[in-house]
Amino acid sequence: MISKGKLKAATFIKAEMENFDFDVSVTVNQFKMTVSKGGDLKEFVTKGNKLTGAMMSMLSAVSRGDRVYF
Questions:
Q1: Continuous H helices in 12-68
Q2: Are strands 40-47 and 30-37 parallel, antiparallel or unpaired?
Q3: Residue 68 CB: number of other CB atoms within 10 A?
Q4: Do 48 and 30 contact (CB within 8 A), yes or no?
Q5: DSSP alpha helices (H): ranges in 1-70?
Q6: CB atoms within 10 A of CB 59
Q7: What does the alpha-carbon distance between residue 3 and residue 5 come to, in Å, rounded to a whole number?
């Protein structure tokens, strides 16, 4: 779980591999963000690791009970 404040402050996605026996470096080339808001699903796709303006707008509009998936 992450706070709305942290979501609103996010500008990029980073992948971290936890609990591996060795160091792993991961580069995010593209990702999809899906938001479940009021029973509706909204999907956003971008290349690279940066959130688009539309993604950041949607994150600003989420409220308690909404779900965000990356």
A1: 53-61
A2: antiparallel
A3: 17
A4: yes
A5: 4-9, 53-61
A6: 20
A7: 5
- Write the Ramachandran bin of 39: left for phi over 0, alpha for psi from -120 to 50, otherwise beta: left
Confidence of residue 70 (pLDDT cuts 50, 70, 90): very high
**pLDDT tens, position by position, 11-62:** 999 988 888 888 888 899 999 999 999 889 999 999 999 999 999 999 999 9
Output the pTM of the full model: 0.82
Q: Exposed/middle/buried for 40, CB within 10 Å: 0-12, 13-18, 19+?
A: exposed
> Whole-angstrom Cα distance, residue 28 to residue 57?
21
Q: By CB neighbour count within 10 A (0-12 exposed, 13-18 middle, 19+ buried), where does 51 fall?
A: buried
